[in-house]
Amino acid sequence: MSEGRGALKLLLKNRLTLAGAAVVLALALVALAAPWLAPNPAQALGRPDMGNQFRPPGPGNWLGTDDLGRDLLSRIIYGTRISLHMGTLVILLAMAIGVPLGAIAGYAGGVADEVVMRLTDVFLGFPPLLLALAVASLLGPGLANALVAIAITWWPWYTRLVRAQVLSLRETAFVEAARSLGAGHGRIVFRHLLPNSLSPVIVQASMDVGYAILTAAALSFIGLGAQPPAPEWGLMVATGRKYFMQYWWYATFPGLAVFVTVLAFNLFGDGLRDVLDPRTRRQ
Hints:
Layout: H1 2-13, H2 15-32, H3 34-37, H4 41-44, H5 72-108, H6 110-124, H7 128-139, H8 143-169, H9 173-180, H10 185-193, H11 198-221, H12 233-240, H13 249-276, H14 278-282
């Protein structure tokens, strides 16, 4: 309990972390309540209003309208759903692949370790965005394919992280005690080693959600992610840039949504690292 109080006190002292957590929570609430918060849900889902094209921000359309007369505020609100959904699923899929592989490599050692680590080295030899671009091009455009493409670039980081944690824990007293009581390898890995290796994984995941959202927006920007009429932020920026000199709001507000979301997850993840790192709490 004293550890928990110390961690909470450290969290509450960091105003930037609290600000990031507040924005992340607000984004989650906006995503859940999008049908009730959006002024025009039908336009958010793609219905055009050709008599209302390129209206500047003001009453009735607080963030303006796009080239098809659709309310930008409504589309950005619905875009929150897509972005958070993509970011969360990418990280969960990457963890589902990388965490077990890292645990097995770190605990088994030998040939298994060599095979897994050489495979991760191959994936880490490519820039993440370039690899995601190549995989998405191979699979074809679409949100589901973009999700798979990004997850494929992310899992090696979790493999290396978990392997390092397991290597440092596999010879500790509580693991030796489990062995002496007859625990099998699977129980030792998934019941004892993995739960004690998850703190850095949680921190990494909280920061990676923002980067996954940014990568998904980049793929949509170049036409390999979400397709029209989906209200995805990167796709909206890509369309709006053609009109930027005359109608600045079209690309600006979706771009700001991406910026604020990524910054919020980074601030939250940075503070979470300070809370979950025992060395930080002792300072």
